Amino acid sequence: MAPPGTFFDLAALHVLTRATLEQLTALGGGSDFDVLRYRPNVLIGGTDPGFAEDAWVGRSLGLGDSARAGVSMLTMRCVMTTLAQGDLPEDRGTLRTVARHHRREIPGLGTWACAGVYADVTGEGVVRSGDPVTLA
User: Fold this and answer.
1) Which of 2, 19, 25, 26 is a good FRET partner for 101, with 20 to 30 A between their CA atoms?
2) Torsion of CA 6, 39, 118, 32, to 10 degrees
């Protein structure tokens, strides 16, 4: 969980894959699944197609040379992703698509529309765009 007095939803990191955004785009009937709607700290490319993050809960991510993150849970999506942001117009179809195609059980919290995962920093390091990501 996030330290008291911080402004995180449920964890310090929100991790999302390009594959998830591509899957939602394919299912979304014209909705715009721009990464800016989801505000991840870490966006990962080069994963298996679909919702790759689902299999990461309880596992550890290596980010770059030494940073590590423990994946704690799937990220529950809400109406915030549908609101206009900068040049992105309001698009309620984004949440409807996630709810229709990717509802998952969150232990102790019920069933939610999910995209991405929450993670906590477990090892310090510098992370740069293009750094390798490993899963343990």
Assistant:
1) 2
2) 150
Domain boundaries, the chain: 13-125
Closest CA to 73 of 95, 63, 58, 51: 58
Q: What is the three-class DSSP state of 23?
A: helix
Strands 67-76 and 110-123 turn out to be antiparallel
Match 């969150």 to its residue by tokens. 106
> Across the 136 residues of the chain, what is the mean pLDDT of every consecutive 10-residue run?
59 94 95 93 92 96 96 94 92 96 95 97 95 94
User: Collapsing DSSP states into helix, strand and coil, what is residue 81?
Assistant: helix
- Which pLDDT score, from 0 to 100, does residue 6 have? 57
